[in-house]
Every structure is written in C-alpha cells, then in structure tokens.
Amino acid sequence: MKKELLEIKRTLTIDRYNITRITGYIVDNDRNCRLEFVKNFLNLEETEIFKYLDIFKKVLSGKPGRNIFQLEFKEETRKRHLATIVKTGLEDNDVRQIFLEEIAESIGISNKGYSLILIASGIYDIPGIATDGADLDESEEVYEYMIGCICPVSLSAAGLSYKPELADIQERTRDWVVSMPTQGFLYPAFTDRHGDPEHIWYYSKVPDKPDAGLITQTLRCGMPSTPKEQKEAFREGLNAADGKVSLEQAKDIYHYLGRIREIKAESDNRILKGTELENVLKSIGIDPELAAEKTKDCDAAEIDADNTVSTKTFEIGLPDAHVSVSADRTDLVTLEVINGEKYILVKADGDINANGIILENREGEKDEEEDD
After folding, report:
1. Average pLDDT along the chain
2. In contact, 3 and 9? CB cutoff 8 Å
3. Residue 345: helix, strand or coil by DSSP?
4. Which residues are within 8 A (CB) of 295 and not within 5 positions of it... i.e. 6 or more apart?
5. What single string gives the DSSP state of each residue in 97-153?
6. How confident is the model at residue 48 (pLDDT cuts 50, 70, 90)?
7. Distance in angstroms (rounded) separating the CA atoms of residues 283 and 277
C-alpha cells in the first residue's frame, strides 16, 4: 500500500497531474449548502491548480495503518454507486449532488466556520514497469478514480499588515481560509498497481479520530481499528503472563517483535498475526494455552506492525517515571533489590547529562578520598 500511495501521489504534481474535473460543496454548521461548484480542472489558472493539488496530495500523505486505512464495503449498492460516480467523471449532476448531500449530512461539523467537501475526478494511465524498475512508455491499464476530502474553512486571524503602496501599516482584512483536509478518501483503492473496486482508502488527519458518520453512513464501510485500539489489543496479548515476565524475558520479546516489524516493513502485509505474537510468547517460556488465549483477539484488531514496539528505543518504568535506552543497548538496564527496595539501574557507560547538562564525574574523587 505504501508504494501505491506514493505512485498516485507523484501524479498530483503541476507537470504530471491527471485530474479532469473537480466539484466543491460548502456547508455551514447547520449543514446548509452555501456554495456548490463544478470546474474543468484543465481550465484553471496554474496557481489555483497548484493549491488544489496540495490539498489532494495531503489525503495520500498519511501512513498506512496509522491514519490511512483500507476499508471494505458493507453494502454492494454503495460500491456500485461510487463506481458510477467514477465512471461519469462528476459529469452526472444528479448523481454528484446526491453524493455531496449525503456527505454533508454525515460528517462531523465544526461550529466555528464552514466545511468544504471537495472531490476530484482523475484518469491515470498506469505505466508498465521494466525488470530494472524503470517506467515503460506503454500503459498496461487505465485507472479511473475519484479523490475526496473534507476541509475546514475558518476565518483568518486578526492582525496588522504593511501596505507598501501607502507607506503605512493597517488592519489586515480577514477572510475565510480553506485549510488542509481532516478527512479524505480515494476510490477505488489502488492495490498492487491496479484499480480495486472492492476497497476504498480512507484518510484521517487525527489517527484515533476517524469520522464515524462519513465512514459508516456515506461510504457504508466498517470502522477501522485505530492505532490506539491496536495498541490496546497488542498490550492485552503481550501481558499474557500477568506480571510474571522477567526483565530479560521482556528484552527478548522486544527484540523478537522488533525483528518481525522490520521484516513486515519490507512486505506488503504489515499486519501482526495473533499466531506470531503467540509464538513469541511461547518462545520465552509463557504457558502455551495462556499465550493462545490472550492473543486470540489480535487478528480482529488488525494490528499494524508499526503500532507494536519501537525499533529505536526500549523503555522500562513506573507510572510516574521511566527509563529509555537505545534499542541496541538494552544490556545497560537491570533490576536490582537493594536493602529490600527494588531499583531500575542503568549502567553509566559514558558521560551523564541531565536535560542536556553534562554532569561532573566524582567517582575518581571519592576513590582518592577513600585512599587518604
């Protein structure tokens, strides 16, 4: 999915764009239509085209499994309706308007301004790829698509501006500004470099706050598993031993999962399977039945490997304090019991600093005082 996202995004540049028409629909916080337009994209000024392309590219700029999700339809009729919109290229006024009105009725609306529903129709001649990875001149398939987004429209901030022609500073005129999209979609999905009418790609600016109305009511798809939900399911499965895992076992789990994440980052399937997590737990000595029971719900959560463990740092800590070390230096951290109290110890291998301030090393001075 990552490669396909990048391929479509690369077509949305001023010298390569393949968008033919766009439609816009502005609604107020009572969902009343304040403006509706349809434009031939090729007839726009270059500066305007550039700004629209920036908005559409944002929908494809997220990270799969975090704020871009592949959704499946719950209704065949909705899939056929979207396919009709794509085929007509936004030229059927009735079909287009019904869809815009459905979106307006379902999306979350801010009471501080307006919302712009913006949809573009595009046609991409998918180039063939040679064995060395270079694009071929021949097109293997024509990919017809629509890309949509929801953009907040808010009043610009008050301020002062310099007027060179008047040699003066005056109050700046406030106007209504279209911001980058908070939600978006691409239909059909672009899977394995082919149009995939069975799926739609959905974008949410805030990963853990997808628009339930847009997804379930208008697109009529199932809600995606958010990064937060994925992490909760992952941690539930990870805590199979209910507090009976040693620090060394935890380090082993971390390294195993880090390796799995690295492998999946290079593959098309980034989802962590329940059996994979189960095998990791069993490999460090967790009871097989307990490991299977705790990880059985992981598949339903569709946990993206990127939402499991960090491949850069290892953390250990308490509710109010934690220690973080580089992934390849977990050996620096140990747990010790001193005078009946448990401590997290970090070997001071190098200069010690506090908030960037290098601290003095008094160890040598103490040794000298003891010798005296």
Report:
1. 85
2. no
3. strand
4. 237, 240, 274, 275, 277, 278, 281
5. HHHHHHHHHHS---TTSEEEEEEEEEEEEEEEE-TTSPEEEEEEEEEEEEEEEEEEE
6. very high
7. 10
Please name every residue paired with 343 in a beta bridge, in sequence order, or none if there are none: 336
pLDDT band at 46 (very low <50, low <70, confident <90, very high): very high
CA distances from 11 to 7, 16, 124, 127, 133 (A): 7, 5, 8, 12, 17
Which DSSP category does 205 fall into?
S
CB under 8 A, 24+ apart: contacts of 333-341? 333/247, 334/247, 335/247
Cα(186)–Cα(119) distance, rounded to whole angstroms?
10
- Whether the CB-CB separation of 312 and 327 falls below 8 Å is answered with yes
Closest CA to 12 of 42, 72, 54, 73: 54
**Does the pLDDT value for residue 61 go beyond 70?**
yes
Summarize pLDDT for 76-97 with one digit per residue, the tens: 999 999 999 999 999 988 899 9
* Cis-peptide, bond into residue 227, ω within 30° of zero: no
Burial 237-273 (b: 16+ CB within 10 A, else e): bbebbeeebeeebbbbbbbbbbebbeebeeeeebbbb
CA-to-CA distance for 106 and 211, rounded, in angstroms? 9
Confidence of residue 116 (pLDDT cuts 50, 70, 90): very high
Q: How far apart are CA 337 and CA 225, in angstroms?
A: 41
The residues that bridge with 160 in the sheet, in sequence order, are 171
